[in-house]
Amino acid sequence: MSSEQLTIASLTDRVKSVAVGAPVSAVHFLGERATFVCAEEKVAIADATGEISHVVVHGGAILCTTSDGKRVVTGGDDGKLVALNAKGETSVLATDAKRRWIDNVALHSDGAVAWSAGKTAFVRSGKGEERTFDAPSTVGGLAFAPKGLRVAVAHYNGVTLWFPNMAANPEFLEWAGSHLAVTFSPDNKFLVTAMHEPALHGWRLADNRHMRMSGYPGRVRSMSWSAGGKGLATSGADSVIIWPFASKDGPMGKEPAMLAPLQARVSMVACHPKQDIMAAGYSDGTVLIVRLEDGAEILVRRNGSEPVSALTWNAKGTLLAFGTEDGDAGMLEF
Amino acid sequence: MSELSSQKIPVTVLTGYLGAGKTTLLNRILSENHGKKYAVIVNEFGEIGIDNDLIIGADEEVFEMNNGCICCTVRGDLVRIMDGLMKRKGKFDAIIVETTGLADPAPVAQTFFVDEDVQKNARLDAVVTVADAKWLSDRLKDAPEAKNQIAFADVIVLNKTDLVSKPELAEVEARIRGINPYAKLHRTERCKVALSDVLERGAFDLDRILEIEPEFLDAGDDHHHHDHDHHHAHDHHDHSHSHGGLKHYHDEEMQSLSLRSDKPLDPTKFMPWLQNLVATEGQKILRSKGVLSFTDDDDRYVFQGVHMMLEGDHQRKWKEGEPRESRVVFIGRELPEKTIREGFESCIAA
Lengths: 334, 350
Prior knowledge:
The complex is a heterodimer of chains A (about 325) and B (about 350). Chain A has about 325 residues and is mainly beta.
């Protein structure tokens, strides 16, 4: 993307519409193809022209999903963990013996996969070794650390850092309340959770110092690290809230940047993988591209629908895809 | 509000002490030919004899909210389950949450007040408590959970009535009424109750807080039911006295308190008083409801609450000729009756 294009106020006429036809809960790119994960049963794979093919991955609701760019892994209320590759082929990675819901899933760049059902977290390494860990309460979120085989397991009253290949006891980071989504900063220095109440909680991993990030009117459902991990963009307010993480103290004692305010709640955020720009989706269906430096906005999709519920860039940052709760979706090429 | 709330999925909370017959009632609800599909959240898999892919096992995890209020608890697992269930919207008509026999219904109810996402999609319909006619009187003495469940209920299914004599039945009903005179009570054998009596009750719908009169005990109870301001001795665990041959019990621990006024209330006094009352005594107050007439206000104001959580709204215009009477009901544990009565009196407009 050139700086010239950023002066264009609207790109809506360049969006390729994708008729997914069912509520979309996430989108990932497998190569150049966007895979829209539906709320139930299916994934819709769209090629560059917007043509789609459907693949059935679950026998019920799709509760969680993630991707490393090579495969999309989904967990369902059918107790199955399913992988989908770029060719559209599926394989069942695991089936819960008690047919419990698969609530969370995470992928490591080395091929390891982690998932959870109820209080139990599972990890299967790239070599196929499986380990389990029982959290003190239901697992709210899972994340692999960028380095080493270390898994953050979010739960009630804190996060456990679990080292599946080591005999050492897991490390417990305590903070009262229910912790849901969890994410490591790309430099491995910070850990952040989205809590059940409208707030984030963070730890600096060197000394476990706490960071409270609050003031949201609604629960934070979407978090995205900006290029190089300089900031953490979040949903949950009527503007995009970006917490600064460039310094060694992270956001401690600092105010977040607040960009792209609208008369609607930000529902999804997705930072560009390479440049200091991001995409934001709103509860009224709006999609914007926002320049982090000055908050300059470009319209990608007009308002007037159900909330944007899926938003992502491809790894090169040349394609943006979005989807909504009422089954509309689109792709934009730069 | 009611139009919006009608699109939300109704949630029935099914409680009852161990062995009272919750699973029997659940099986009835699921097997009867009503053309509706229920998502059921249970704690014990396998007890439900019905094939239904929308039976979900729960962990009954009670989480404290981070708002400094210790009675402000929610069911963390329920938040997660509701999230997942909403992906299957349209596949079911209503949700039933079965609690374990020892559970406090409050965290379940509060989940539907506190959680924004849950609130957006679902509405609490009623708390239905199944009670065992033979053993409830004993449980009320030795199991605080059983008492909680009775106090909290909007609907009480008094089950296994075939196992007790008539006087025993009257006795257990009187004990229930001593705690909660407001719930609808149904006497059943093997939980044979019309499903319309337990489902779609709208007990938490502000628009339906019309009748907060106590339910009369139908047998021989022909006297006007008066407010419970008897002076009773505190040297017994409980005591009974008789009206027209019918026993009235007063539970020493759990009771209801009804307040009323023909004169309008001053909203600038009442609202702060109510908020302060639930903030300070909210742990003791299980349920509260009210229909209010304020000074210089032609609208009825209605409110309801669970512990410290309150919701209220202007409901509608007072009708022509309708007595503009304010009525407030609290059900709770060791309610500070004198303080509450005096506080209420002080809110009556001069």
